Structure formats: structure tokens, C-alpha cells
Amino acid sequence: MKRSFTLFFFFLSLLLSNTTSAQDSCFYTLNLFDSFGDGWNGNLVTVITGDDTTSYTLNGIDDDGLSNSFSIPVVSGDTIIISFTSGLFVTEVSYELIDANFLPVFSDGFGAPVMLGEVFNGTADCPSCTPPFSNSVDIEDIRAFQADVSWIPTDPLASTLLEFGPSGFLPGSGEYQLASGAGTTLFNLMEDTEYDVYLAGNCSEMDTSIFIGPFTFRTR
Q1: Whole-model pTM?
Q2: CA distance 80 to 166
Q3: What is the sign, positive or negative, of the torsion defined by CA atoms of 108, 112, 117, 120?
Q4: Is-contact 163 144, C-beta < 8 A?
Q5: What is the pLDDT of residue 109?
Q6: Model confidence over 77-97: pLDDT tens digits?
């Protein structure tokens, strides 16, 4: 694998340092967008989770001014409060909060102006088993009959279940492969064929997360 595992070990140490069990803690994701690409011009979104209060923005220095993603650690039962403080050019701003299953929890500014003040009040819910980070999945060293797949697991103690098949196959009808760690190789592929791959966390025989994907590639 060509992937650097620096980020993997960062999340691994972060997860292992948390005294709360993996079943009670997880990561939500906050995605910020700016339609003009010049940052948020003083606009702020503030997220309160448990005892932590953090404000987020796009400044064009620590990001590209167009978008950025932030991982937010939460514990099941935590109250999540989102508030928005306006700056300049607020009509360019949009954002969303995604849960540990990569499903939308709250979004604003998409097709309508963002709301001001407190805009969301809810409760964190961590699934017992979570899939790998969706933006970490990488397919490389693609050959005629094999390809390497790597990812960053959200639970270092879980394995990962992969389902794959020719592009467009019906989920549940593909081939399965169980892998530990942060990567594996798919063998016995067909040459010059487009494939879809789905991944799920496998915490135990009776506890598997939702599948994420498809991630598509073509063999040589």
C-alpha cells in the first residue's frame, strides 16, 4: 500500500485514549462550504457537544476558501447545539452536520439563506458499530486482475467487511471479503472491467455497520 498511515494512527490513539467504550463514542462530521470560494468572511457556526464549545469557519488560510470538514467527537446522549453568527456575504454560506453513519443530521444554506442564532438542538446517537471514514477510502495499484483497497477504520478493534462486483451490481449479490487493519487486496478480478466496492465495519458476527459506497474503479 502506498497510503501513509499517519492519519490512521492519529485516530487510533484518539480512540484508544477515550475512556468511554467504542459503543458509546463516535465522530460526527461538520462540512462547511462557500459558493464564492473566498472563505466565510466572518461568519461562524458554533457547535456545543457536552462540555465542549467550538466555533468553525472558512478563512482561506487553513483551507482553500471553498470547503472544509471537521471531525467532532461525541458521546451517545450528549446534547448537540448548533448556532450561527453572521458576518459578511452570508448568502454564500452553507453547512451540514453528518452523523457516524454518514447520514445528514442538519443542514442549512442549501437553496435558502442560513438561519441565525440557535438553529439546532438534538441528541448524539452513536451506533454500536460504525463504518470506515468515507473520505478515507482509496483504491490504488489497480492491475488487470487485482486492486488494493485501503481505508481508515473508525473502530480499531473492528474488522472491515467489503462487498464488490461489476459496477451497478445489486448490493447483497456481490462477493464478500473480511479484512483486519486498514487495507486489503481484491484478487481474481476480471480485466478491463469497472467494479463497485462497498465497505462496512464488522464489530462482531452479529454486529455490522451500514455499508458505505459504492467506490468505483476499472481494472487494466
Answers
A1: 0.72
A2: 41
A3: negative
A4: no
A5: 97
A6: 999 999 999 999 999 999 999
